[in-house]
Amino acid sequence: MSGMIEEHRWLKEKLALLPGKPGVYLMKDAEGRVIYVGKAKTLKNRVRSYFTGSHDAKTQKLVSEIRDFEYIVTDNAVEALILECNLIKQHQPPFNIMLRDDKSYPYIKITREEHPRLEIVRRMAKDGASYFGPYPNSGSAMETKRLLDRLYPLRKCRNLKKKVCLYYHIGQCLAPCEYPVDPERYEAIRKDIGRFLNGGHGEIVEELERRMHEEAEALRFERAKELRDLIQHIGRVMEKQKIVFQDQVDRDVFGFYAERGRMCVQVFFIRGGKLIERAVQIFPFYNDPLEDFGSYVAQFYFEETERPKEVYLPEGVETDVLGEWLGARVVVPKRGPKRQLVEMACENARIALQEKLALEERDLERTVGAVRELGDVLAIAAPRRIEAFDNSNLQGTDPVAAMVVFVDGQPAKKEYRKFKIKTVQGPDDYASMREVIRRRYTRVLREKLPLPDLIVVDGGRGQIGAALEVLQDELDLEIPVCGLAKDDRHRTDQLFLGDDPVPVPIDRHSQGFYLLQRIQDEVHRFAITFHRQTRGKRIMHSVLDDIPGIGEKRKRKLLQHFGSVEAIRQASVEEFRQAGIGDRLAEQILQALK
What we know:
Layout: H1 2-7, H2 9-16, E1 23-28, E2 34-40, H3 43-48, H4 57-64, E3 68-73, H5 77-91, E4 107-110, E5 118-121, E6 130-132, H6 138-151, H7 166-169, H8 183-217, H9 221-238, E7 242-243, E8 251-259, E9 262-271, E10 274-284, H10 289-300, E11 310-312, H11 320-326, E12 329-331, H12 336-378, E13 385-394, E14 397-407, E15 410-411, E16 417-420, H13 429-447, E17 454-457, H14 461-474, E18 481-486, E19 492-497, H15 511-545, H16 552-562, H17 565-570, H18 573-578, H19 583-593
Parallel strand pairs: 8-11, 11-12, 13-17, 17-18
Antiparallel strand pairs: 1-2, 1-3, 4-5, 4-6, 7-10, 8-9, 9-10, 13-14, 14-15, 14-16, 18-19
Helix pairs in contact: 5-11, 6-9, 8-9, 12-15, 13-14
């Protein structure tokens, strides 16, 4: 670090001027971009710590890119916390922990309207409505809402219809569109839903079971079965809830675990004394784990209007500033069931992160191992970068080709390329391959792009020969080229390398073979998709774009209105009027299409 300071003496001078006050600092890279935002009780001590002493690998990565810094002094630590959240949201620095854009958790809302209804929202507002949740994802919220829709007859339509709909006939709506509804009835439903979601579903189940038995005794077995299914559905949806406290206080419980530069955070939502849901997030971090975890918690509540009365955090996390800002009781439990709950959140975070890391290691071994195995089979160095090509045409029309790139056994989709064949007439796959290989690697050489360790072509010796002809004879490149020939059932059957007429023996159940299959399937999919798009554009051009008076906007308008070219061909002049097309132009279109 001292070397960096000596090299940039003015940086050393800026460090000497840092004040001993609270505030926020912004680290910048060589291009002036903000790469990290942090807060400090004492700016002088915190910022200097980045440039003195030793750091672990992950912090060193951050420090190695710092070339400048700015700071903003605040009156107190709470202001620094709020400013830090704002600046992280504004700059989205790559070395900060940031919540995903969809971080806000869904709630179920009972609207405060004359005729209320249930809906799922991401934010709580002070609008007199009733909110329940949060739920960890929209799927969980939607499942619970569907259950409530079956149990309670609130209106389902956003705007009242003119007459009753199916929901009324199946007992899931009071039909305020036709029949008056007493406001007290709605208030009773609102209270029932609140009681149901806060642990009172057991009473509902008992009532449904009583009705189910009554229906069965009356030999109305179909209705009894519906009630039985509803009871089972309630059990599946509500089984996640378990009582943890008797005091009915709303709490959020945080736990985290950090390993190998990754952090997992678990949040348990306790509402009405019950653990109703949990949320999990895994992300990289580059600073002190406790400091970055504290930043995560601050961002978690930054835009939330509704906050729990209590927040429980693991040991070591500073609670005073966070509690003052949140207006909630933020504590680190020392003993008893509250401490056990935090430990359970931390343990779940540990299990989730280690499982994620283990799966990544297994996936890495499968992909990188497959690359090494393929290199051994072909007697070449492990082909870390593989580029594969495939041609696509329909009886010689709209010929195209596609290239996919695999790096260390994984698709690098940003490097995929598409080619429209320009110099070949008719269905000549060999000539098409020569054109594409020539265009691709002429550009690679001109722009000094990385060369592949292996080129894969879709086909046998003929396709390989076409590729080698360009690579070796025209471009003077020595890149291994292999081809995948298929049997009469269109299954990958043989592997050829270069101009050797003898197939390369490869175990069809090996990881190397599976890698080749994945590459072949991917490039074929990419080529076919591109060909369909190209052919579709040509067809659309030939029937619409050549009509005088039809530009891109009108073409899009016609297709949106009618749905297809065939529907346009069958339309009447009156229907064209509805699409905003005049009679004269409509007649021209119909004449051209027919």
